[in-house]
Amino acid sequence: MRPSEAGWELDLRGGRGHFPLPVKSILENAMMTTNLAAADNARPAADHPEALVRVDDFQYPQGWIPPAAAAGRTRQCCEQLEAGQVLFLDRIPYLFPQADREFLLLQRQSGSRLHKNVSYRPQQDVLRGAAGDREEQARLHDIMRRYSAEVARFLGQLLQPYAAHWTLDYASFRPEEEQGRDLPVHKRNDLLHVDSFPTRPMHGRRILRCFSNINPTAPRVWNTTDEFSVLAQQFAAEAGLAGFAERGSARGNALARGVKKMFGLKGADHSAYDRFMLRFHDYLKENTGFQQNCRKVRIEFPPGSTWICFTDSVPHAVLSGQYALEQTFIVGLSGLVAPDKAPIRVLEKMAGRVLANAA
Ligand code: SIN
Ligand code: FE
Questions:
Q1: Residue 48 pLDDT
Q2: What is the C-alpha to C-alpha distance for residues 96 and 138, in angstroms, rounded to an integer?
Q3: Between 3.40.640.10, 3.30.43.10, 2.40.30.170, 2.60.120.10, what CATH number should domain 44-227+296-333 receive?
Q4: How far is the CA of 202 from the centre of ligand 1 (A)?
Q5: Is 7 helix (H, G, I), strand (E, B) or coil?
Q6: What is the value of pTM for the model shown?
Q7: pLDDT tier for residue 261 given thresholds of 50, 70 and 90
Q8: Any idea where the domains of the chain sit in the sequence?
Q9: Which of 86, 116, 174, 313 to mutate to test the pocket of ligand 1 (most atoms within 8 A of CB)?
Q10: Burial call 215-242: b when 16+ CB within 10 Å, e when fewer
Q11: Residues with CB under 5 A from ligand 2 (ion)
């Protein structure tokens, strides 16, 4: 880790961190920003207790090494994720042929007009946002189908307690350079936020995401900050938690809800929890004081690395990077090892009310 303009930086590339600032200034920064120790990649993950946990004892295709440690390690990983940490692997720990990677990188370089993201819906086996001729689209579809199945297999081993409780959600390929993108404020990826999906109400279930940086040379750079429970204490009241809790899940009459549902429109089946989380996402992005002044930890995910976190509780902003693959899982509350830490439970405690029925 080293100090940078934005705060502290976890450099995961290997070698020792260097400190261009005088020691006094480093200590002052450390007190203002984070209690992480100076970075040294050779150190075990436990030295980065706040933001990031390295997982070095999981290999493809063997899985956990040694296999006898699997039960304990897989549960520990779930605990770490639910405590708001990011699991980091310095490789791609699932089958991902070099030819597929080359094809994905070429897609952009050849100038074909891809959408902002290419999305893949594994339940329906549907690819969206792809351009190119039929053959290219079929190849891309093939790659995304295989990628999605491989990540599901990998995470089923890494996070075994969740596997019986999750729904495989969408996967995406992100071929755009993130730095300098011109997007409306609520869509900006470079502002810190926690995730919520307008089209998929969660009712308290968790959003778990697995990312791989397939860029051959450039890192993907994130900022993160204090996790959900801290931000909720600070901002949930101002973002209107009491009002959302009061109004509950009912909105509009049954007919209007039915029509909305038919057309797959926002609001069809949203609980008070979902409404609040959608608002909180926008509230955080709109809050320039928070964006400018909050404590930041900058993380560089190097080429060829993989990371996993609950993005509904780990605030994140992507500052730069191009060519990432991502697969989302929706994890039911009954699959969590520490359900009391879930955002819905944190908010219910604060609001003194139930915010969604059975998740
Ligand atoms: C996000 O904000 O969910 C996107 C993060 C990324 O693309 O790295
Ligand atoms: Fe996000």
A1: 46
A2: 17
A3: 2.60.120.10
A4: 19
A5: strand
A6: 0.85
A7: low
A8: 44-227+296-333
A9: 174
A10: beebbbbbbbbbbbbebbeeebeebbbe
A11: 195
